[in-house]
Amino acid sequence: MEQPSKKRKVINDFFKPISKRPSPELVLMPPQPRLEENPKQAFTLKETPVPGLTLLINFITPAEERSILDFLKDSAKCIWRTDLSRRTMHFGGTYCLMPPKSDTSTKAKPKTLQAPPIPRELEWLIQRMVDAHVFSNNQRPQYCIVNEYTDSLGISAHTENFQFGEPVVGLSLLSACPIRFHELTEPFDGSVRSGKAGKAKKTGRKVDVNMPGKSLLVMKGGSRWKWQHEIGRSAKGRGVGWKRVSLTFRYKAEDENHGRNSKEQWTSFVYERDQFEKSEAEAKKWN
């Protein structure tokens, strides 16, 4: 009898290229949960009802969580922006600093500032994501946004900016937090700040995904392009001292010849899905 393969499973095994006649699960459903045997940190892959959305439970250890939080407290290396209701920090690229809300006497405009690159103190985390095949080695994330949520703070429903590719990956620290996903009728690239995110047409389908601390959220496929996500602005169920810190990692091709851009990735996903559905419809005609 042929012995089963003992080759270690990695996340890429759950996102294989789509064949000509895949099953619907391969196109529209998230991967099945498996245990990743990693010598540095064992984590569990957990499926969600949102297509393309995967949770990696306990992606880091409690000690590693503390080391990240301690680094973020280092004012010599980390600068929090306080122009928003929540504290935010940027690494990589540029960002807009909003004028104070109290500044009503002048027509102040947002300032575009250069963010520092992702610091070496987070390189071990990026390498672990590469080792787990969350990101490929030649498409390592260059951008990271850190958000701190306390009390009743949250963020409105949105998709990540379409100038970035997939996956979009979020590491959650400290308290667990439910994240609500809204299915859209079609992909929609609109930011919260511009007010366009609220104009996205929704199907009405909502899914709440609980995000534990020390865990990684990986958005690919439909969850990346066709579902908005939000964190509710409510202190209900959070308790005294509730606090969540998130690090969102994103990758963008530096030039048009390096990898597929975000629009091409989504177009390919939709094309492969539609081709499958078309072939199934044709097959039914002859059965």
Automatic annotation (TrEMBL):
Domain Alpha-ketoglutarate-dependent dioxygenase AlkB-like: 52-250
InterPro entries assigned to the protein according to its UniProt record, in alphabetical order: AlkB-like (IPR027450), AlkB-like_sf (IPR037151), ALKBH4 (IPR032857)
GO biological process assignments: demethylation
One GO MF term: oxidoreductase activity
Gene3D superfamilies from the UniProt entry: Alpha-ketoglutarate-dependent dioxygenase AlkB-like
Protein name listed in UniProt: Alpha-ketoglutarate-dependent dioxygenase AlkB-like domain-containing protein
Species assigned in the record: Letharia lupina
